[in-house]
Write a structure and sequence with these properties.
This protein has 305 residues and is an alpha/beta fold. 55% of the residues lie in helices and 9% in strands. The strands form 2 sheets. The chain has a 5-stranded parallel beta sheet with strand order 2-3-4-1-5, with helices on both faces. Strands 6-7 form a two-stranded parallel ribbon. The radius of gyration is 24 Å and the shape is globular.
Length: 305
Amino acid sequence: MNAVEQQAPGLPENAVATVDLAAEYRDAGVAEVLDSLERELVGLSPVKRRVREIAALLLVDRARRKIGLATEPPSLHMSFTGNPGTGKTTVAMRMAEILLRLGYVRRGHVVAVTRDDLVGQFIGHTAPKTKDVLKRAMGGVLFIDEAYYLFRPENEKDYGQEAIEILLQVMENQRDDLVVILAGYADRMERFFESNPGLKSRVAHHIDFPDYSNGELGEIAATMLGQWNYRLDAAGRGAFDEYIALRRARPHFANARSVRNALDRMRMRQALRLFESGATVDAAALTTLTEADVRSSRHFLPASP
């Protein structure tokens, strides 16, 4: 008698005796998704590890079902906490792919919404809006960004609580056909869950997304520029390192999102510089961003008192 049969003597006669987890992992294509996530996102090691853990849980759960072991499907609703620009939406998309490949959702799409997509402005408006969003998300993942805005206790006439109640029902009764990911700032999400214990009890996986370091932001910038066929010259790279340190000390810093916005503005400055020079340009000129393109940013100016 093999090890599986010794541990589970009540298996059906036609049950599979063993499952090759490596083959399951390979055939499902989960490795491709995890590799894609590794390429797309710099750093975020704790986040990537949690994603691998969830993928492993689902893979083993599928193996248990193949063998015929009685099992309770794992709860899949999640909370992503962290500052803007830390990759939460990207991870949600890759998580949907993993869920699809392992057979936990039918379609594997992501419907990303905010409060305005769910909550109406007058009586009778919220329920149809929320139900329409849920209908579109069925078979995939519903990603609710800044989810704490659904709950506004200071406004007795706010309709966000109605959306939450509908969401709770669907998260419980149709959890085999929809995965909900609630996202936002960590401190606000904690208060949101404390005010809505029903939601907190239905969310099994809490993943915190740390801010990027200055070095990681520089690596993200280099990757983005490479994808666009641009590069920073040596002086430009030094200036951009200074820019990152200055920018993250200012308000409304959004990690990779702020880096992308900065690079877009640098490209505009380069374009204007080349245009105004009136010179004949070659490929090197068209693809190189210089120190001047970086230092023209207002963030190099003294902060206003």
